[in-house]
Amino acid sequence: MKYTTYLFDFDYTLADSSRGIVICFRNVLERHGHTGISDEAIKRTIGKTLEDSFSILSGITAPETLTEYKKEYVKEADTYMTVNTFFFPETVTVLETLKNQGAQIGIISTKFRFRIREMVDQHFPKDFFDIIIGGEDVKKAKPDPQGIKKALRRLHRQKSETLYIGDSTVDAETAQAAKVDFVGVLNGMTTRKELTAYPHRQILDDLSLLPLIHKFNPYEPEKHFLEKHI
Protein backbone atom coordinates (compact mmCIF):
# COMPACT_ATOMS: atom_id res chain seq x y z
CA MET A 1 0.00 0.00 0.00
CA LYS A 2 1.31 3.41 -0.93
CA TYR A 3 -0.26 6.33 0.90
CA THR A 4 -1.04 9.52 -0.98
CA THR A 5 -1.81 11.61 2.09
CA TYR A 6 0.07 12.01 5.36
CA LEU A 7 -1.69 13.90 8.14
CA PHE A 8 0.32 14.82 11.22
CA ASP A 9 -0.36 15.90 14.75
CA PHE A 10 1.86 18.88 15.64
CA ASP A 11 3.01 18.98 19.28
CA TYR A 12 5.42 16.15 20.14
CA THR A 13 5.00 14.75 16.61
CA LEU A 14 6.57 17.35 14.33
CA ALA A 15 7.84 19.75 16.97
CA ASP A 16 8.75 20.08 20.62
CA SER A 17 6.85 23.01 22.07
CA SER A 18 6.86 21.60 25.59
CA ARG A 19 9.04 24.37 27.02
CA GLY A 20 6.65 27.08 25.87
CA ILE A 21 3.61 25.07 26.92
CA VAL A 22 4.97 24.55 30.43
CA ILE A 23 5.78 28.25 30.80
CA CYS A 24 2.30 29.30 29.67
CA PHE A 25 0.44 26.80 31.86
CA ARG A 26 2.58 27.56 34.88
CA ASN A 27 2.12 31.32 34.54
CA VAL A 28 -1.66 30.96 34.42
CA LEU A 29 -1.93 28.29 37.10
CA GLU A 30 0.32 30.01 39.60
CA ARG A 31 -1.44 33.33 39.02
CA HIS A 32 -4.57 31.64 40.34
CA GLY A 33 -2.91 29.84 43.24
CA HIS A 34 -2.40 26.43 41.66
CA THR A 35 1.15 25.59 42.73
CA GLY A 36 3.23 22.46 43.06
CA ILE A 37 2.26 21.10 39.64
CA SER A 38 5.19 19.33 37.99
CA ASP A 39 6.48 19.93 34.48
CA GLU A 40 5.78 16.26 33.73
CA ALA A 41 2.14 16.61 34.75
CA ILE A 42 1.76 19.57 32.39
CA LYS A 43 3.52 17.74 29.54
CA ARG A 44 1.22 14.74 29.98
CA THR A 45 -1.72 16.93 28.97
CA ILE A 46 -0.18 18.01 25.65
CA GLY A 47 -2.56 17.11 22.84
CA LYS A 48 -5.70 17.70 24.87
CA THR A 49 -7.79 20.85 24.64
CA LEU A 50 -6.74 23.74 26.87
CA GLU A 51 -9.96 23.43 28.86
CA ASP A 52 -9.40 19.73 29.50
CA SER A 53 -5.76 20.32 30.39
CA PHE A 54 -6.55 23.06 32.90
CA SER A 55 -9.28 20.90 34.42
CA ILE A 56 -6.89 17.97 34.84
CA LEU A 57 -4.14 20.14 36.33
CA SER A 58 -6.27 22.31 38.61
CA GLY A 59 -9.25 20.11 39.44
CA ILE A 60 -11.58 22.89 38.31
CA THR A 61 -14.64 21.90 36.27
CA ALA A 62 -16.56 25.19 36.02
CA PRO A 63 -16.72 26.03 32.28
CA GLU A 64 -16.53 29.79 32.81
CA THR A 65 -13.33 29.48 34.86
CA LEU A 66 -11.72 27.15 32.34
CA THR A 67 -12.65 29.55 29.53
CA GLU A 68 -10.96 32.39 31.40
CA TYR A 69 -7.83 30.29 31.97
CA LYS A 70 -7.79 29.48 28.26
CA LYS A 71 -7.93 33.20 27.35
CA GLU A 72 -5.04 33.91 29.70
CA TYR A 73 -3.04 31.02 28.24
CA VAL A 74 -3.47 32.37 24.70
CA LYS A 75 -2.11 35.75 25.82
CA GLU A 76 0.88 34.06 27.44
CA ALA A 77 1.44 32.02 24.27
CA ASP A 78 1.70 35.19 22.20
CA THR A 79 4.92 35.86 24.08
CA TYR A 80 6.36 32.46 24.92
CA MET A 81 5.16 29.81 22.49
CA THR A 82 6.77 30.18 19.08
CA VAL A 83 10.18 31.27 20.40
CA ASN A 84 10.23 28.13 22.56
CA THR A 85 9.12 25.70 19.83
CA PHE A 86 11.60 23.63 17.81
CA PHE A 87 11.15 21.06 15.06
CA PHE A 88 12.63 17.67 15.82
CA PRO A 89 15.92 17.13 13.92
CA GLU A 90 14.39 14.80 11.34
CA THR A 91 11.12 16.68 10.75
CA VAL A 92 12.05 18.94 7.84
CA THR A 93 13.92 16.21 5.94
CA VAL A 94 11.11 13.67 6.37
CA LEU A 95 8.39 16.07 5.24
CA GLU A 96 10.44 17.18 2.23
CA THR A 97 11.08 13.54 1.30
CA LEU A 98 7.37 12.70 1.43
CA LYS A 99 6.55 15.79 -0.60
CA ASN A 100 9.15 14.85 -3.21
CA GLN A 101 7.50 11.41 -3.42
CA GLY A 102 4.30 13.18 -4.48
CA ALA A 103 2.44 12.90 -1.19
CA GLN A 104 0.01 15.44 0.18
CA ILE A 105 0.98 16.73 3.62
CA GLY A 106 -1.31 18.11 6.31
CA ILE A 107 -1.49 18.91 10.00
CA ILE A 108 -4.45 18.15 12.29
CA SER A 109 -3.96 19.62 15.76
CA THR A 110 -5.78 20.98 18.79
CA LYS A 111 -3.27 23.86 18.64
CA PHE A 112 -4.51 27.06 17.00
CA ARG A 113 -3.84 27.13 13.27
CA PHE A 114 -2.33 30.62 13.41
CA ARG A 115 0.15 29.42 16.04
CA ILE A 116 1.20 26.48 13.88
CA ARG A 117 1.60 28.88 10.95
CA GLU A 118 3.94 31.05 12.99
CA MET A 119 6.27 28.06 13.24
CA VAL A 120 5.97 26.33 9.87
CA ASP A 121 6.26 29.54 7.87
CA GLN A 122 9.78 29.95 9.25
CA HIS A 123 10.92 26.65 7.75
CA PHE A 124 8.73 25.82 4.74
CA PRO A 125 7.42 27.59 1.63
CA LYS A 126 3.98 29.10 2.13
CA ASP A 127 2.20 26.48 -0.01
CA PHE A 128 4.15 23.45 1.30
CA PHE A 129 1.32 22.09 3.48
CA ASP A 130 -1.77 21.08 1.57
CA ILE A 131 -3.94 21.67 4.63
CA ILE A 132 -3.59 22.77 8.25
CA ILE A 133 -6.54 22.28 10.58
CA GLY A 134 -6.24 23.78 14.04
CA GLY A 135 -8.44 23.84 17.09
CA GLU A 136 -10.42 26.83 15.83
CA ASP A 137 -11.39 24.96 12.64
CA VAL A 138 -13.50 22.24 14.25
CA LYS A 139 -16.47 22.12 16.61
CA LYS A 140 -15.24 18.94 18.30
CA ALA A 141 -11.61 18.39 19.24
CA LYS A 142 -9.64 15.16 18.91
CA PRO A 143 -10.26 12.30 19.50
CA ASP A 144 -13.36 13.23 17.53
CA PRO A 145 -12.46 12.50 13.88
CA GLN A 146 -13.95 15.75 12.59
CA GLY A 147 -10.55 17.26 11.75
CA ILE A 148 -9.35 14.29 9.72
CA LYS A 149 -12.67 13.95 7.92
CA LYS A 150 -12.65 17.64 7.07
CA ALA A 151 -9.13 17.33 5.66
CA LEU A 152 -10.07 14.35 3.50
CA ARG A 153 -13.07 16.20 2.06
CA ARG A 154 -10.98 19.24 1.18
CA LEU A 155 -8.15 17.17 -0.27
CA HIS A 156 -10.54 14.81 -2.11
CA ARG A 157 -8.81 11.76 -0.64
CA GLN A 158 -10.03 8.39 0.59
CA LYS A 159 -9.48 6.94 4.06
CA SER A 160 -7.68 3.94 2.58
CA GLU A 161 -4.91 6.12 1.12
CA THR A 162 -4.40 8.22 4.25
CA LEU A 163 -1.99 7.79 7.16
CA TYR A 164 -2.30 9.73 10.41
CA ILE A 165 0.84 10.18 12.52
CA GLY A 166 0.82 11.20 16.17
CA ASP A 167 2.46 10.74 19.54
CA SER A 168 -0.42 10.25 21.96
CA THR A 169 -3.31 7.95 22.74
CA VAL A 170 -5.59 10.84 21.73
CA ASP A 171 -4.03 10.67 18.25
CA ALA A 172 -4.43 6.89 18.14
CA GLU A 173 -8.09 7.21 19.14
CA THR A 174 -8.59 9.90 16.50
CA ALA A 175 -7.22 7.71 13.72
CA GLN A 176 -9.32 4.79 14.91
CA ALA A 177 -12.48 6.93 14.96
CA ALA A 178 -11.71 8.27 11.48
CA LYS A 179 -10.98 4.75 10.19
CA VAL A 180 -7.55 5.68 8.83
CA ASP A 181 -4.23 3.92 9.42
CA PHE A 182 -2.09 5.16 12.29
CA VAL A 183 1.64 5.39 12.99
CA GLY A 184 2.76 6.34 16.47
CA VAL A 185 5.99 8.17 17.30
CA LEU A 186 7.67 8.18 20.68
CA ASN A 187 8.72 11.84 20.75
CA GLY A 188 6.42 12.71 23.62
CA MET A 189 5.27 11.46 27.01
CA THR A 190 3.25 8.47 25.77
CA THR A 191 4.93 5.07 26.01
CA ARG A 192 5.20 2.38 23.36
CA LYS A 193 2.98 0.13 25.49
CA GLU A 194 0.26 2.78 25.66
CA LEU A 195 0.28 3.31 21.89
CA THR A 196 0.48 -0.39 21.06
CA ALA A 197 -2.92 -0.88 22.70
CA TYR A 198 -4.50 0.81 19.66
CA PRO A 199 -4.63 -0.28 15.99
CA HIS A 200 -1.42 0.85 14.30
CA ARG A 201 0.90 0.19 11.39
CA GLN A 202 4.07 0.87 13.35
CA ILE A 203 5.27 2.58 16.51
CA LEU A 204 8.50 4.43 15.68
CA ASP A 205 11.10 6.06 17.90
CA ASP A 206 10.91 9.17 15.68
CA LEU A 207 9.81 10.18 12.18
CA SER A 208 13.01 9.21 10.36
CA LEU A 209 11.71 5.86 9.05
CA LEU A 210 8.30 7.19 8.05
CA PRO A 211 9.04 7.52 4.29
CA LEU A 212 9.66 3.73 4.21
CA ILE A 213 6.32 2.76 5.74
CA HIS A 214 4.35 2.52 2.50
CA LYS A 215 6.78 -0.01 1.03
CA PHE A 216 5.90 -2.75 3.50
CA ASN A 217 3.03 -5.03 4.33
CA PRO A 218 0.85 -3.26 6.91
CA TYR A 219 0.76 -6.45 8.96
CA GLU A 220 4.51 -6.96 9.06
CA PRO A 221 5.53 -7.26 12.72
CA GLU A 222 7.04 -4.06 14.02
CA LYS A 223 10.11 -5.91 15.29
CA HIS A 224 10.94 -7.17 11.79
CA PHE A 225 10.36 -3.76 10.23
CA LEU A 226 12.70 -2.07 12.68
CA GLU A 227 15.36 -4.78 12.38
CA LYS A 228 15.57 -4.12 8.62
CA HIS A 229 16.15 -0.41 8.96
CA ILE A 230 18.06 0.25 12.17
TrEMBL record:
One Gene Ontology CC term in the entry: cytosol
Protein keywords: Hydrolase
One Gene Ontology term from the biological process aspect of the record: DNA repair
Record SUPFAM superfamilies: HAD-like
Pfam families for the chain: HAD_2
UniProt catalytic activity: 2-phosphoglycolate + H2O = glycolate + phosphate
Its EC number(s): 3.1.3.18
Pathway(s) annotated for this protein in UniProt: Organic acid metabolism; glycolate biosynthesis; glycolate from 2-phosphoglycolate: step 1/1
GO MF term list: phosphoglycolate phosphatase activity
InterPro entries in UniProt: HAD-like_hydrolase_sf, HAD-like_sf, HAD-SF_hydro_IA, HAD_2, HAD_sf, PGP-like_dom2
Enzyme class at the top of the EC tree: hydrolase
NCBIfam families to which the protein is assigned, alphabetical: HAD-SF-IA-v1
Family under the similarity heading: Belongs to the HAD-like hydrolase superfamily. CbbY/CbbZ/Gph/YieH family.
Protein name (record): phosphoglycolate phosphatase
Phylogenetic lineage: Bacteria, Pseudomonadati, Bacteroidota, Bacteroidia, Bacteroidales
